[in-house]
Amino acid sequence: MAGAKDNNLSASLEDYLEAIYNLAAESKVARSKDIAKLLSVAKPSVTGALQILRKKGLANYEAYGFVTLTGAGRAAAAEIARKHEILKSFLTDVLGIEPGLAQRAACKAEHTLGPKVISRLLGFIEFVGNENDSGYDLAGKFKKYYARKRTR
Amino acid sequence: MAGAKDNNLSASLEDYLEAIYNLAAESKVARSKDIAKLLSVAKPSVTGALQILRKKGLANYEAYGFVTLTGAGRAAAAEIARKHEILKSFLTDVLGIEPGLAQRAACKAEHTLGPKVISRLLGFIEFVGNENDSGYDLAGKFKKYYARKRTR
DNA sequence: TGACAAAGTTAGAACCGCCTAACTATATTA
DNA sequence: TAATATAGTTAGGCGGTTCTAACTTTGTCA
User: Fold this and answer.
1) By the CB < 8 Å criterion, does B29 face chain A?
2) Which one of A3, A55, B73, B90 is CB 3.0 to 4.6 Å from B69, fit for a cystine?
3) Does the distance separating the beta carbons of A149 and B96 come in below 8 Å?
4) What average pLDDT does range B13-18 have in this prediction?
């Protein structure tokens, strides 16, 4: 087998994967420079990460060339992005946290939550939406509750 | 100043601090061996961490002696433990996740969540409890919703 | 009290992730 | 097309966290 499928990605490598995934989604191509900027790291750090991702069979990449994800890489990245979205959604839609902070918090926490927690969280977000449809407005009620609490 | 108060604790050092805090809470004394066991690390790793915590002014510690926390150390540890409790509480009481998994997930995620998110989460747990008192039983409703969803 | 067990430490190495400095390759443009 | 600007790479180093092996200190108990 060419690429050893070591599924255990470090938080750092997950970040690189997600960055490539997102950049490719908007501009078809992920350039090393943009990855570096997005993650606020120096260029050599990106090169190093790309070499590891290639070795793991997650990224198609050759020196001085474009970067794309393999099927496995895309699958892994999609899962990470999904976690990110669910978390961010919970933070903004349920807890009412500002988008900027929610974005940053989701980015940090997304690496630590396993499938079970994520699945529950997703279910909870749906549930809250449903309650809202049925006229209960959970998020709104919490918002008021929290505001009242703060002024006590 | 003797101990440089570098507030930026790594996740790893936070783990050591929390371990000492919890061990001291139950047996008055935190022994190096128990810290190692609790965190699943080798003994020299504990020694190294203790030296750093001492240098940071968070732990009172001398070679071959007992380990206690300084005032600053206790304050920092309490804050970490508080995050842990809030997170675990949310996972078990609101999302209905089993205590064991919730414990482990909280342990990982507690290092990534800032004060704002924690504060909101705490507020939300209180809110859910309140709703429960007023006969709404949010957690119970979600539990049913989630069970139904899974069988669809 | 002296030997042995348990606990703790020091030394040295490895790995990870990041950096800067210096180099090479590619792209641009005059 | 040749000079220059931009992008990417290699080499080497640093801090953080962990390990094993070997040592020292402390505690126990016959």
Assistant:
1) no
2) B73
3) no
4) 98
Q: A-chain residues within 8 Å CB-CB of B137? A: none
Angle between helix A115-133 and helix A138-151 axes, rounded to 10 deg: 100
B120 and B66 both lie in a single domain: no
Rounded CA separation A61/A45 (Å): 15
Q: Is the predicted pLDDT of residue B5 greater than 70, yes or no?
A: no
Give chain B positions within 8 Å (CB) of A101.
Answer: 114, 116-117
- CB-nearest to B97 from A109, A112, A117 is A117
A88 and A67, same domain (yes or no): no
Banded model confidence at residue A6, pLDDT cuts 50, 70, 90: low
> What's the CA B63/C1' C4 distance, rounded, in angstroms?
22
DSSP structure string for A42-106: -HHHHHHHHHHHHHTTSEEE-TTS-EEE-HHHHHHHHHHHHHHHHHHHIIIIIT---HHHHHHHH
Please check whether residues A100 and A129 belong to one and the same domain: yes
Average pLDDT, chain A: 93
Q: Which structural domain range is residue B27 located in?
A: 5-76
**Spatial distance between the Cα atoms of A58 and A74, rounded to a whole number of angstroms:** 8
Mean pLDDT, residues A118-125 taken together? 96
